[in-house]
From TrEMBL:
Region forming the signal peptide: 1-18
Protein source organism: Bowdeniella nasicola
InterPro entries referenced in this protein's UniProt entry, alphabetically: Bact_solute-bd_prot1 (IPR050490), SBP (IPR006059)
Principal subcellular localization: other
Location within or outside the cell: Cell envelope
Source domain of life: Bacteria
Gene3D superfamilies: Periplasmic binding protein-like II
Official protein name in the record: Probable sugar-binding periplasmic protein
SUPFAM superfamilies: Periplasmic binding protein-like II (SSF53850)
Assigned GO CC terms: cell envelope
Membership in a protein family: Belongs to the bacterial solute-binding protein 1 family.
Function: Part of a binding-protein-dependent transport system for a sugar.
Entry keywords, A to Z: Signal, Transport
Length: 436
């Protein structure tokens, strides 16, 4: 498997994260400079994403507005596909790419998720646009390293997300005799707190469909293995069938036993709603969740709190939404114009203030930083200071085939939840392609 930058993880960032950049491709004429001109040509620009609901849809609409202003010669065509945290979009995309009928640009998680597209020569090297739009100056070097494959860059990030976040309802915690301002020290303490919530008559934790289960599993692995041990899962230094992973799966099984099973086939937002409404205590979700709390009129620290999954303090579980330039795109200039917008300052500020993520640039002014909420300010600080590890569930750490197989293993385990050995064996088998 090709190495995707620092897929197995990186040391702490040396730059404070803040804002935005541009994008591009390796063939065809280029758009205007990084200042946001109208670009060459015109026509429809087909953009595939899975941002079809909630804050994600609002974020896409915000980007569309900036795109129309910066590139009026082009017409944005929303080809978003809903469902499964992107799984439906990826399935349709795979069919279109195989039929050599690509969109002009498509969303993909930055990192190992791009491996299959690169190996199949389905996406272009866009390194030249990093030079044209001066993105190597705008993005932290650690992010550039994470995006680089064999000296080339194949996507442009619109944001950075953190996945190892617990969202908790203050009122529910207080009802159980817990202090919202005091996060549990480790997984055992957190499980003990969940038992107290259960005894108080409320749901301890909600978990959604398979990809959210895999996200929960990865943060439990982080908590029990530490950053170095977790990173070792992707370079062969930590055995998936080893005793450290067994301990983590046992913790995961206990948490799943305390989860409300009625949400196991739901996407993240329905599973988060009980926490927002005060019917459940906890949910583990990426920081796109902050927008759902905002939409419900809930105040950070007043109505809810967010903290690193117990045992992962000092780690930042990284993922980033990015866009590519497919080989054979019909409107190359239009795709480049989109890549410029999603990485430019105005585009990233418009998008991330709505979506709850943080920008991929490190060159925002104090005034620009002030447009972001308190949680995002905290996340920017963490991204700058913490040890960065890569998400399995969101394509940064593992290729699509691996994460899909692990999704299936999680879904199967959720239905029974007792065969730890069998679950671990399935995870180890799913991880085998990463050792080749």
């Amino acid at each position: 498997m090709k190495r995707i930058g620092a897929v197995a993880g990186l040391a702490a960032l040396s730059l404070v994260l803040a804002a935005c950049g541009g994008g591009g491709s390796s063939n065809g004429s280029t758009t205007g400079g990084s200042g946001g001109g109208s670009g060459e040509g015109g026509g429809d620009v087909s953009v595939v994403s899975w941002w079809e609901a909630g804050s994600e849809k609002k974020g896409l609409e915000a980007l569309e507005g900036v795109f129309k202003k910066e590139h009026p010669n082009f017409t944005f065509k929303n080809a978003a596909v809903a469902g499964g945290g992107g799984s439906q979009a990826k399935q349709k995309l795979a069919a279109d790419l195989a039929a050599k009928n690509p969109p002009d640009t498509f969303q993909a998680h930055a990192g190992a998720e791009l491996t299959d597209y690169i190996d199949a020569m389905q996406i272009e090297d866009v390194s030249n646009l990093y030079d044209e739009f001066k993105l190597k100056d705008a993005f932290p070097q650690t992010l550039i390293d994470r995006l680089t494959v064999d000296g080339k860059i194949y996507s442009v990030p619109s944001n950075v997300h953190r996945a190892n976040v617990v969202w908790a309802n203050n009122a529910v915690l207080k009802e159980a005799g817990l202090d919202p301002e005091k996060a549990p020290a480790d997984l055992d303490a957190w499980i003990a707190d969940m038992e107290k919530v259960k005894a108080a008559g409320k749901t301890p934790i909600t978990v959604g469909m398979a990809w959210t289960q895999l996200q929960l599993l990865e943060v439990v692995l982080m908590a029990d293995l530490g950053a170095e041990g977790y990173n070792g899962l992707f370079d062969g230094k930590t055995a998936w069938d080893g005793p450290e992973v067994t301990k983590a799966i046992e913790h995961y099984a206990k948490i799943m036993e305390l989860a409300d099973k009625s949400y196991l086939n739901e996407d993240w937002e329905p599973a988060m709603n009980p926490v927002i409404s005060g019917n459940a205590a906890y949910n583990v979700m990426g920081d796109w969740a902050v927008a759902a709390f905002d939409a419900a009129g809930k105040k950070y620290k007043e109505d809810y709190v967010a903290f690193p999954v117990p045992g992962t303090d000092g780690m930042f579980d990284f993922l980033a939404d990015s866009f590519t330039l497919p080989v054979g795109a019909k409107n190359v200039d239009g795709a480049k114009a989109w890549l410029q917008t999603i990485s430019g300052k105005e585009g990233q500020i418009a998008f991330n203030t709505v979506k709850g993520s943080i920008p991929a640039r490190s060159d925002l002014s104090e005034e620009e930083l002030g447009k972001f909420g308190e949680y995002q300010q905290d996340a920017m600080k963490s991204f700058a200071e913490d040890t960065i590890v890569s998400s399995i569930a969101h394509g940064a750490a593992a290729p699509v085939a691996v994460s899909n197989a692990m999704n299936d293993a999680c879904a199967k385990f959720a239905q029974g939840g007792s065969d730890v050995a069998g679950f671990q064996a399935e995870l180890a088998k799913a991880a085998e392609p990463m050792s080749k």
